[in-house]
Amino acid sequence: MGIRSLTRTEAERRGALLTVERYDIEVDLTALPGGPDVRCVSTVAFDCHEPGADTFVDCAAEVLNATLNGVALTPGDDGRIPLPDLAAHNVLRVESVQSDTTTGEGVHRAVDPADGEVYVWTSFEPDEARFVWACFDQPDLKAPHAFTVTAPAAWTVTSNSGSPRVEETDGARRWTFPDTPPLSVYNTVVNAGPFHEIRREVGGYDLGLYARRSLAAVLERDADDLFTLTGQGLAFYGEVFSMPFPQRTYDQVFMPEFGGAMENYGCVTWSDAFLRRAVPTHAENELLAKVLLHEMAHMWFGNIVTMRWWDDLWLNEAFAEFACHWAAERATRYTDVWAGHLAADKLRAYLADQGPVSHPIHQPIHDVAQAASIFDNITYPKGASVLQQLMTYVGEDRFTAGMAAYFARHAWGNTTLQDLMDALSEVSGRDLDAWRAAWLATAGTDRFTLERDGDTVVLVADGTPRPQVLALGAYRVDGETALRDALVRVEVTGPRTPVPGLPAEADLLLVNDGDLTFATARPDPAGRETLLRTAAHLPTAISRGVAAATVWDMLTTGEATAAEAGRCIVSVLATETSDAVIEPYLTRAADIAELWAPDADRADLTAAVAAACRRLAADPGRRRVALRGLARTATGPDDLADLRAQAGDEVDLGWRLLVRAAELGEDVSGEVAALLERDTDPDAWVRALTVEAARPDAAAKAEVWQRLAVDRAVPVSAVRQVAGAFWRPGQDTLLAPYAQHYLDAVPQLHRGGMIPAMSFASHLFPPFAIDLPYIEKAQQLAEDAAPVVRNTLLERSDTVRRMLLARDGGAGGA
């Protein structure tokens, strides 16, 4: 029997039966410098409300010894240990070892290629703590945790509660941490290694930053910004939630071979890919700020108050994603962060919500395996946009008051959707039942068009719209200037909404001006060409973004060509003033040229993007972003020679131009060797592998596929980079065998846990060397895959299907 996934029914039964008093977890890391083993002793004190009943504890590590109230237990072969004949009060003790610390779930041992030093991290969402020690691995059985960690003497250990007592013992050191507040087991953490550490007092908090020693210089470079953002975020959230973060220490640990970031209470773990080896661009700095504030928001949404079951995952993730934009705009220098959201993440959400994996933000979740499949573009960016609409719908002051009431009422407990709706309804005075049903329990995206009925403009929904507040802008076009003559906010309650005060004779009427809601729009037939021509001349980053989003959505549904969409976005780049969107638009324009354009149009569109990059490169503040775009779109030896001259000694640009040169058939082996010698990045070998991946050479493709997809030697944070260089247009003959290799790999793509499964299922999917029957075959295989692989594969395959139709000039991507 394989490892079983906890079902909702089992969790509800166990949750009603037990109250967990505390966890005492002993972790022994002393074997890790030379071997794979992590040894743990988990002691759990808990009460049973029906003495004599049976239940089970989760433990998918190898069990060495287990006792319940002093009586030996026999583990099952399904990742569970049966617990028979429970007493009113019980003490469970389980000794376990986890040896799969390279590719397994829950705990990971990473070796720094720069110096051979070993680092270890744990990451448990949604239910991976059971792979490391015995626990009741469900979110509603919260309890204090006390960690005692024995580690090599040269190592530093971090955990949730900070301020440990450290003792020397037998050539090692023992780190004893104070009790945590009541936490779900997935919010706990142990990180360890010979870290470089920086600490600073900010706003009354003791803040810590950690990274591997080979990245000390990069951490020192970014420390001021990280401390500033952390202080700003803690102050903002403490104020708007009327609840300061209740622990003095707040640590952030940047770890090798980690995917994304994880909101462990008081000790956030990050991928150290966020420590950019080159000086970061504005977009990279903004992303860092958003992730930092997202994980911090989880201290309240997820840690202090935790969803009862995974159907309310959005209570964690959508709120954290919304809150990070709210905090960034109000408390940091990233005041255009919502424009960046619209230019990037929200477009992915629109696409996902109109595809085969669209689902309600709040939906029944049968088991935890299904829960892992909804960490997606519906839960995150759509959820954030829907919450922005909710704040607009009830008003920001009432929204803030409702949040404060929610946290005051439910701190250190578990909640459901109804608890949140009750708090917001009470404070706002609005009945939110219809809003909840329409926005949270119903999948799909509203679409609006306009009719001009005499002197009245009517907003028309395609079907029954959700209750929402949005704005419409009326613009007068004068040459290369678009002047807004009116901006009217309306509340939508039915299929047809008259918009008083909006001049019907306007040259352009922009639906969702201000981007207050999550809905797509189409211009009226007379306004289509005006929209394409005028998008670049609208007066704000948000209004330009709404126009660009409309054109992008038209491309994905076959209502605009790649040439139209690409040239529209390039035209916006020529006038854009917000650094929050320039890099996303450059990426979007290059994606359209590379992935969506027919072969006959690709060269011209690529040249248009390259020309935009050259114009931007004249601005010193945007030079780095522009040259990155130029490296992607260089078309021949002359472009590459010019780029080499401009790059000079800049290592990051050097790697990027070598990827493009290799793709274009140049022999760059000598330059790769020379750059490896100069590059101080401990992960520079991944950049060299990326160059190899781009080469139009059978042996190179075979080597890269082996290391990337079979051996999984590439850090999960770099899979997208290497895979993007591997799958290149114009290399179909070389790539065709790997399209089949992907299909062969589908049954095993889930191994390693949620984050690797999502990364490999998405980024290894071929955008070239396939046809529509291949898409159908992949989608058929997805039906038997693990839920997280199934949903990721279906979403990615639908996007690629739309690309194929666009390349063929076909209509109707939806």
Write structural notes for this entry.
The protein contains 27 helices and 28 strands. The two termini are 41 Å apart. Helix 9 (396-410) packs across helix 10, helix 16 packs antiparallel against helix 17 (623-633) and helix 22 (698-710) packs antiparallel against helix 23 (719-726). Helix content is 43%, strand content 21%. The relative contact order is 0.07. The protein is globular. The protein has five domains: 1-184, Immunoglobulin-like (Sandwich), CATH 2.60.40; 306-439, Neutral Protease, domain 2 (Orthogonal Bundle), CATH 1.10.390; 446-517; 536-631; 727-814, no CATH class. The strands form seven sheets. It has an eight-stranded mixed beta sheet with strand order 5-4-7-2-1-10-13-12. Keywords: Aminopeptidase, Hydrolase, Metal-binding, Metalloprotease, Protease, Zinc. Belongs to the peptidase M1 family. Its EC number is 3.4.11.2.
Question: How is this structure best summarized?
Answer:
It is an enzyme of class 3 (hydrolase). The chain is an alpha+beta fold. It folds into five domains: 1-184, Immunoglobulin-like (Sandwich), CATH 2.60.40.1730; 306-439, Neutral Protease Domain 2 (Neutral Protease, domain 2, Orthogonal Bundle), CATH 1.10.390; 446-517; 536-631; 727-814, no CATH class.
Could you tell me the mean pLDDT? 96
What is the CATH superfamily label of the largest domain?
tricorn interacting facor f3 domain
Q: Which CATH class of the largest domain applies here? A: Mainly Beta
In the CATH scheme, what's the topology name of the largest domain? Immunoglobulin-like
Tell me the overall shape.
Answer: globular
Tell me the strand percentage band: 15-25%
In total, how many beta strands? 28
Strand order of the largest sheet: 5-4-7-2-1-10-13-12
Radius of gyration: 27 Å
- CATH architecture heading of the largest domain: Sandwich
For the biggest sheet, the summary is: 8 strands, mixed
Number of helices: 27
Distance between the ends:
41 Å
Uncertain spans, ≥5 residues at pLDDT below 50? Answer: none
Cofactor: Zn(2+)
Family: Belongs to the peptidase M1 family.
InterPro entries: Aminopeptidase_N-like_N, Aminopeptidase_N-like_N_sf, ERAP1-like_C_dom, Pept_M1_aminopeptidase, Peptidase_M1, Peptidase_M1_aminopeptidases, Peptidase_M1_dom, Peptidase_M4/M1_CTD_sf
Domain Peptidase M1 membrane alanine aminopeptidase: 231-437
